[in-house]
Amino acid sequence: METEEQDSRVTALNGYDWPVALPKNINEADLPMRDISFQAVWTVSSCKSEGNGIHELLHDSVEKYWQSDGPQPHTVTIEFPRKTDICFVMMYLDFKNDESYTPSKIIVHLGSSLVHLDDGLPVEFNEPTGWQLIDLRSRRTNRPSRAMVVQIQVVHNHQNGRDTHIRHIRVLGPSRSRFVSHSRLHAGRPGSVDDFVLPPVSDLNKLINSCMAIR
């Protein structure tokens, strides 16, 4: 798979100014982007000590950070309760302060579970400072990917460093899901789709006619 190299985007020291790093080629139907980070359960492969774990990784201040404490690859695993539309992962990295702790190569995996992950998207960084955007959308349509699990693996650090610092991570999705399953209506369970949108009347008439034909 082709490896991406990210450009640095320098921003203020907080965890909610990620919109400044968004690309311009976002489908209008997906705007505004939503921060869906807190819909998920987060785990890390290791952490140095109390005060350098998940709480710091998700803290609004990017002066705080997660520090790993173990062999590479270091991993951050983000698990959603259901299949979720995902557009971007945003990472705040700071080579100036973290030097050899700064990731130089990561691999981002998506999947339906921890045992069903894809081959992953390799991403490389060159002395990054600021928000780094990892685009997980379809390369052909720019539409969101759908997954229950996002796993970020840090496979190399700058200067061959052992442990890693990541100062912030955000997972972003579209304003609303594109996925509306009419088959759920056949099953009588439209409520099982959280963002179910009632189709237009013309579509409902077609649906009713198809149900009568099946009967």
Task: Please outline what is shown here.
The chain is mostly beta strands and 215 residues long. It has helices spanning 54-57, 95-98, 183-186, 201-214, and strands spanning 4-6, 34-35, 41-44, 66-67, 74-86, 88-94, 103-113, 116-117, 121-125, 129-135, 145-157, 165-166, 168-173. It folds into two domains: 4-173, Sandwich (Jelly Rolls); 183-214, no CATH class.
Structural class: mainly beta
Q: Shape from CA axes?
A: globular
Sequence of secondary-structure elements: EEEHEEEHEEEEEEEHH
Reported by name, the CATH topology of the largest domain is Jelly Rolls
Query: How many domain units?
Result: 2
Domain DOC: 12-198
Protein name: Anaphase-promoting complex subunit 10
Family: Belongs to the APC10 family.
Pfam families: ANAPC10
Describe it for me?
The chain has 215 residues and is mainly β. It has two domains: 4-173, Sandwich (Jelly Rolls); 183-214, no CATH class. Helix content is 12%, strand content 36%. The chain contains four helices and 13 strands. The chain has helices spanning 54-57, 95-98, 183-186, 201-214; strands at residues 4-6, 34-35, 41-44, 66-67, 74-86, 88-94, 103-113, 116-117, 121-125, 129-135, 145-157, 165-166, 168-173. Strands 1, 3, 5, 7, 8, 9 and 11 form a seven-stranded mixed beta sheet that branches. The chain has a four-stranded antiparallel beta sheet with strand order 2-13-6-10. It has a two-stranded antiparallel ribbon with strand order 4-12. A hairpin with a 2-residue loop joins strand 7 (103-113) and strand 8 (116-117). This is Anaphase-promoting complex subunit 10. Belongs to the APC10 family. Residues 12-198 form the DOC domain.
